Amino acid sequence: MPSSHPDPILQRDPLDGFHEECGVFGVFGSDEASVLTALGLHALQHRGQEAAGIVTFDGHSFHAHRALGHVGENFGADSPQMQQLRGHVAIGHNRYSTSGNVDPLMEIQPFSSELAFGGFALAHNGNLTNAGRLRASLIETGSLFQSSSDTEVIVHLVARSHQDSVTDRLVDALKQIEGAYSLVCVADDMLIGVRDPHGVRPLVLGQRENTWLLASESCALDIVGATPVRELDPGEMVVIDQHGVHSTKPFQPVSSRFCVFEYVYFSRPDSVVEGRGVYHARKAIGAELARESHIEADMIIPVPDSGVPAALGYAEASATPFDLGIIRNHYVGRTFIQPTQKGRTDSVKLKHNANPAAVRGKRIVLVDDSIVRGTTSRKIVTMMRNAGAAEVHMRIASPPTTHPCFYGVDTPSQDQLIAAQMSVEQISKEIGVDSLAFITVDGMYRAIADINRDPDKPQFCDACFTGDYPIQLASGLSAKRVSHGSGSR
Ligand code: AMP
Q: Which of 279, 362, 370, 394 could bridge to 433 as Cys pair (CB 3.0-4.6 Å)?
């Protein structure tokens, strides 16, 4: 794409990932819809920390508030913003994203517009792989885009659809879309939830008395005292109105490919996704890792917080003591948020410190959930040596991350993924450990009890570990991964 293109989504590098990690939440049938949504978004803060937004509908009008920063800073229960978010229907969105080239406030979801049939608001978790192409043709034929987000394409397709009802218009729009999406929408006094046909991102339906809720993860239902009813099936659309919940499956069925990285890192450990508790999945992966790559050691040390459940599982399975050799400062964001490599290095220092009392003179095994660029590992290994560890081994509770994600997890391009550039032995030298092992892909699936995995009928998307992308990529995206080879595994 020419870098001088006036449209920001068309001029950004399509090979550099799309930087969308998000959480969505929706409520139908409560006078406190906005308060419940703010609480739900707060529980989903780990899915996106850059910005948050809530749109409500009161039967006549839509109300919206969107702001940069955390949910707690912008949606306090008694704040004037919350007072004006009236209505019994609400949707909300947490955004984790680098801004486009336009006003950052215009990038914050939910997007809402006045269309021919009335108001329509939409929030999206996932990433669309053919948005650039659709956007270009929509612009050519007169659509005026407000943001650089791929999600806005859906709004324009809904606006242009010739179908009669809003739900038919939405289905019509989504049939033109490729990629990963879990959506919550408000239109025509209805709350609508949809999962893409592969079901890459999660979406769960919950209930609290007469109120229905939709959330990216079950932890967001817990916080409002709602009961999880069920997870939406891949390709399912639910329409919630005053008569209850109506479900349809409007898309051609395809194999289900839930994102396995939700278990590895992304979801909160207290959530249940796709019928499995994330905490137990992580512990089981840690235990399998210990079976696959056991090493004699005095202490298992988790890299907090994401490595803790796997380290517990590893310690239990290897009958080795577990201790907190690294203390985390919780008042800084995730290291990944920093846009530059320099920024990342600094934030690792800000986030983790060694606890010499737990590691001095010990042969330790560090357990983390993943290595992406290698920045965290390098820093932490040095910390452990400086704190007097006798040996430092590292075990990683996911396979090597060799491929970027195009479906909604913020992984960098392949040239920045250390496992795409180096062998395990080279990484081991690079980060300065005495030994390094990653869990195998099969080990990971054994751990999450997917023992009947049929390679011809995969149940998960594991493209970040295998390069097996379940949804067609635009030609530039697939060319990228071919040109870099398959990495180190
Ligand atoms: P790195 O320092 O680049 O190797 O990143 C590894 C660390 O980032 C691990 O400790 C993970 O917990 C965390 N991590 C892995 N994937 C992501 C992601 N998509 N977003 C934010 N953090 C991540």
A: 394
Q: Which of 274, 334, 340 is nearest to 306 (CA)?
A: 334
**Residues near ligand 1 with C-beta < 6 Å?**
265, 303, 306, 334-336, 368-377, 409-411
For residue range 98-150, list pLDDT tens digits in order. 545 567 889 999 999 999 999 999 999 999 999 999 999 999 999 999 999 99
User: What number does the ligand 1 atom closest to the CA of 303 have?
Assistant: 10
Amino acid in the structure at residue 5: H
Least confident piece of the model among 7-16, 242-251, 311-320, 398-407: 7-16
Given this model, what pLDDT does residue 11 score? 38
Distance CA(433)–CA(395), nearest Å, equals 10
Q: How far is the CA of 28 from the centre of ligand 1 (A)?
A: 35
Q: How far apart are CA 431 and CA 342, in angstroms?
A: 17
Q: Among residues 37, 464, 28, 460, which one has the least CA distance to residue 275?
A: 460
Q: What residue ranges define each of the domains in the chain, with the CATH number in brackets?
A: 10-16+278-453 (3.40.50.2020), 19-266 (3.60.20.10)
Helices 308-318 and 278-292, packing angle to 10 deg: 50
State the average pLDDT over residues 316-334: 89
- In this prediction the pTM is 0.91
CB 50 within 8 A of CB 96: yes
Interval 157-167: pLDDT, tens: 999 999 999 99
Task: Give residue 224's identity as a one-letter amino acid code.
Answer: V
